[in-house]
Design brief:
CATH superfamily of the largest domain: Periplasmic binding protein-like II
Number of helices: 10
Shape: globular
Order of helices and strands: HHEEEEHEHEEEEEHEHEHEEEHHH
Radius of gyration: 22 Å
CATH topology of the largest domain: D-Maltodextrin-Binding Protein, domain 2
CATH class of the largest domain: Alpha Beta
Strand order of the largest sheet: 11-10-12-9-13
Strand content: 15-25%
Distance between the termini: 65 Å
Number of strands: 15
Number of domains: 2
Oligomer: single chain
CATH architecture of the largest domain: 3-Layer(aba) Sandwich
Length: 285
């Protein structure tokens, strides 16, 4: 009888459901316990996220979290919460998520099929494409001019991957972050810096002499930005998406966009009708 009972217990344990890695309620439970939503974001990527001259950490993606995502996550967690920020860069952002150092990546991260193997993405909150930042008068006018040229990019970026795979005739130089890449360009160590067009426009706008620089070339990639989170965390993703959806529906998202990208914003970058249609299509509008 004891032997039979042992077999039954062993069988029951073997058949018991095993909680998946990154179980759905992990992040919300963590936030409910701590009262903190920790985001990974940038310190030198205006106007999405950067430290301004008053030493304040500000930006478009930070405002989206504070004004749109935070209320929905607080509602889902059942308590008031605060936002804490940690610096993330292309090489560090997925590790920061997977080791639980941050709960959400809110910066200039392109939603790609390859990255979706490791993380989940929110609704797209921005759409742009890759271009080049060059010194005024540079012979580099677009992706067809980069053969033999020294091209800077950020480590771990989609732009670096595209240049490496599709334009091997270029001399790709990878840097840990945007300020380092721009410094290399300013010092003549590279001929051009490639990144998403809006990031380059922000970098030019914040440069000591904006007139010395040009953003050139047609988009050679599509870059839909999403907020990344741990894979399989369905309830947390639903809360993040609900915040963005409400922002689109109420118009609050477009007010925040106007603040940062409108005529009086940090980086004027008018939203085209096509991009607005792309964003609203996600919520059935």
């Amino acid at each position: 009888m004891k032997r039979l009972l042992g077999v039954v217990v062993a069988l029951a344990l073997a058949l018991a459901p095993i909680a998946p890695v990154g179980a759905e309620q992990d992040t919300l439970a963590k936030i409910k316990e701590t009262g903190v939503l920790t985001i990974g974001t940038r310190t030198g990527s205006p106007p999405f996220a950067y430290v301004n001259k008053n030493n304040e950490w500000v930006g478009f993606s930070i405002d989206l979290v504070e004004m749109l995502v935070k209320p929905e996550v607080a509602k889902a967690a059942g308590k008031a919460i605060k936002i804490e920020k940690k610096e993330s860069t292309p090489p560090t952002r997925i590790p920061l998520l997977t080791n639980n150092s941050v709960d959400l990546i809110a910066e200039t991260m392109t939603d790609t099929a390859q990255r979706r193997e490791s993380v989940d993405f929110s609704l797209t909150f921005f759409y742009t494409g890759a271009q080049f930042l060059v010194k005024k008068g540079s012979p580099v006018k677009g992706v067809n001019d980069i053969a033999g040229k020294r091209i800077a990019s950020q480590q771990g970026s989609t732009n670096a991957k595209i240049i490496r795979e599709k334009y091997p005739q270029a001399q790709l130089r990878e840097f840990p972050d945007q300020p380092a890449a721009f410094q290399a360009l300013a010092q003549g160590q590279v001929d051009a810096y490639t990144n998403d067009g809006i990031q380059l426009a922000g970098l030019k706008a914040k440069a000591p002499n904006p007139g010395d620089w040009e953003v050139v070339g047609d988009f050679y990639s599509e870059e839909p930005y999403g907020m990344a989170m741990r894979k399989g965390d369905a309830k947390f993703k639903a809360a993040v998406d609900a915040g963005l959806k409400h922002g689109f529906e109420s118009g609050k998202y477009f007010e925040i966009y106007e603040k940062w990208f409108g005529p009086k914003g940090d980086v004027p970058y008018p939203m085209t009708p096509q991009v607005k249609t792309y964003l609203l299509k996600q919520i059935g509008k």
